[in-house]
Automatic annotation (TrEMBL):
NCBIfam families: Mhp366_Mhp367_fam. It comes from the Bacteria. The lineage of its organism: Bacteria, Bacillati, Mycoplasmatota, Mycoplasmoidales, Metamycoplasmataceae. Keywords: Signal. It comes from Mesomycoplasma ovipneumoniae. This is Lipoprotein. The keyword Signal applies. Residues 1-23 form the signal peptide. The keyword Signal applies.
Length: 612
């Protein structure tokens, strides 16, 4: 029965497994409870005012793309070559499919059970759900701590199924023979696997996360199914000292620790799945140490934002252009900066992973609001009087939830903008810009305001547990220093080159590929060999997971060659698994920029800066 099932499998999108957008899963800081109602108060610099600052905010979760487990594939069905953000909607609880229409510039996919769960989980402190009527003093408050609000329901977004511009009729059609570099290895000439421990990259970190988030579990492969490259014999064109996975020898019996991973059918441990979706006989992989200096600037191109990862394309006069997945840029049809969550950014710099907390989670958003109101009233007083009395009181008006939301959105719109003229040809690709110069200038203004009025601010504004904002501001200032140094460095990078290679179905590529991926709380400097083109998309194995969507994959010369998009998991799978080399077991699918039908390379380059 199982054999018959696998023989009946149709192309990629018609099989019974999940495809998960590697979007976002991020760490939530410990939050002080700031949900108590507020009163009108008077602010002076004599410390006789006591006001609560704005609460720290939550984060949306990743979106999931679900494929019906009970789907029976039939022959002669046209398929699409990639998934993007525009997919039909399925309710997570009952799998009812909601009707949607596809955009006019794309083909509908008939007779398909493909569906998406657009599930950006919102924490109770997410900005659009703040239970905050005004700023309130809690310095002398003896009110009991309010009970936590119940968990919000998952929010689903309706997205139509998109057909790609390339259609295949049947899987059995003959594929043009593509030359493969180093097609056959002499296993006896490879070095034995040294079983050296890989650097911890963050999978072991524990944070409070939504219940519908994947956990990560380690497992161990037996050493007899892994070899290593050496100077005399290697995979592809060059020795990179990668671990070589002998795929024809690997199966569920190759696991020596944590047998739970055997239940994951759609990865390199399943020969039947692999023979259909990943034809290479070998896989080369290493998660490079952070201190490894090879290709350092290429790894720095992939930058993590709150909802996913983006590729640094070009910079000019303090602003940078980014390429990412459409599903990373838009959450519930809004750009991610309209619901900005923790962290604002993560980046690889000075041989380490660095983060900049979101403005809301660090207390900085509160200072922006206070400073804005303070400056406004000072200007009004100056307009009415020649001078301002030393004992002049300044009133902070009550702030409604609607007003707070708009303030946060408008603030981030100063720094981020989307490129609406970009034609993605129906692919899950989008472009946006970040003005880091303006952002840094404004933050420095906030620091100046804080230092000038520090005593007043620390005595007048506290969290509900009595703590001041001092520790959060100090922590953010330390992060901001590294953040500024990073942008001083990467804004000097030349415009990113994009490979002009046009890919063909059935192609196998063993040349070295690299890319920094940000799955959940981890960061992996992926170096790998082994790519298989299936249905117009690259399939490969690297360290990957929610949060790494939008990551660029590069050649060693620094050219962008394709983009990360999705991972494959079983329908009821709750955990993702990584081996002793940090390689996750599930397969990754990406997005190509060129084939015989489209040319995204030329389209992307239209939006580089004109520096003439």
């Amino acid at each position: 029965m199982k054999s018959k099932f696998f023989k009946s499998l149709a192309p990629l999108l018609f099989v019974n497994f999940f495809i998960v957008s590697c979007a976002n899963i991020i760490p939530l800081q410990h939050r002080k409870n700031n949900d108590e109602s507020a009163k009108n108060q008077v602010i002076t610099e004599k410390n006789d005012s006591k006001n609560q600052i704005l609460p720290k905010l939550g984060t949306p979760n990743n979106d999931l793309v679900q494929i019906d487990e009970n789907l029976t594939p039939i022959g002669n069905i046209k398929t699409i070559n990639d998934l993007n953000n525009d997919l039909s909607l399925t309710n997570e609880n009952n799998n009812d499919v909601l009707e949607n229409s596809a955009p006019k510039n794309n083909h509908n996919l008939g007779n398909s059970s493909i569906s998406t769960i657009q599930n950006p989980f919102l924490d109770k402190t997410q900005i659009e759900n703040l239970n905050l009527l005004s700023l309130k003093s809690l310095v002398k408050s003896n009110q009991p701590k309010p009970k936590p609000e119940p968990k919000l329901e998952s929010i689903l977004e309706q997205n139509p199924v998109i057909g790609s511009e390339i259609n295949q009729v049947v899987e059995d059609l003959p594929i043009e023979k593509i030359p493969i570099i180093n097609d056959k290895l002499d296993i006896s000439k490879l070095s034995d696997y040294d079983n050296k421990s890989a650097q911890k990259i963050g999978f072991d970190l524990k944070y409070r996360v939504p219940a519908n988030t994947f956990s990560y579990q380690p497992f161990v492969l037996k050493s007899n199914v892994i070899k290593q490259e050496n100077d005399n014999h290697f995979l592809g064109e060059k020795n990179e000292n990668l671990n070589i996975y002998l795929l024809d020898k690997i199966n569920t019996g190759s696991v020596s620790e944590n047998e739970n991973v055997r239940q994951t059918n759609f990865g390199y441990l399943n020969p039947r799945f692999r023979s259909n979706y990943f034809k290479p006989d070998y896989l080369g992989f290493r998660s490079l140490d952070y201190s490894d200096q090879r290709y350092k600037e290429i790894f720095q191109r992939n930058i993590r934002f709150s909802t996913g990862t983006a590729i640094l394309l070009d910079s000019h006069e303090g602003e940078s252009a980014f390429l990412t997945n459409h599903h990373v840029l838009y959450i519930r049809q809004k750009p991610f900066w309209e619901t900005m969550a923790f962290p604002l950014m993560r980046f690889y710099y000075k041989d380490d992973v660095n983060s900049l907390a979101s403005l809301a989670s660090s207390g900085i958003l509160s200072l922006f609001w206070i400073k804005t109101e303070y400056d406004r009233q000072i200007q009004e007083l100056k307009a009415r009087h020649d001078r301002i009395a030393r004992n002049q009181f300044i009133y902070i008006d009550p702030i409604t939830q609607e007003k707070l939301t708009k303030f946060n959105i408008d603030l981030h719109k100063r720094y981020f903008r989307e490129e609406q003229k970009f034609n993605n040809f129906g692919k899950d690709v989008a472009i946006f810009y970040f003005n880091h110069a303006k952002f840094r200038e404004d933050i420095k203004g906030i620091f100046d305001f804080y230092e000038k009025h520090k005593n007043w601010l620390l005595s007048s504004f506290r969290y509900s547990n009595g703590e001041t904002i001092e520790n959060d501001i100090t922590r953010f200032a330390s992060q901001f220093k590294i953040f500024s140094d990073f942008w001083d460095h990467v804004q000097k990078f030349p415009p990113l080159k994009i490979s002009e290679k046009s890919w063909k179905d059935g192609e196998i590529d063993y040349t070295t590929k690299i890319g920094g991926f940000w799955p959940q709380f981890a960061f992996s400097k992926n170096m790998f060999k082994g790519v298989y083109i299936k249905n117009g998309a690259p399939n490969f194995f690297v360290t990957n997971g929610p949060g790494a969507s939008g990551s660029g994959v590069y050649n060693t010369n620094g050219e962008l060659i394709f983009m990360n998009q999705l991972i494959t998991v079983t329908k009821k799978q709750k955990s993702l698994y990584y081996d002793q080399n940090n390689l996750t077991s599930h397969m990754t699918t990406g997005i190509l920029f060129r084939n015989d039908k489209i040319d995204l390379v030329s389209e992307i380059k239209k939006f580089y800066y004109d520096k003439k």
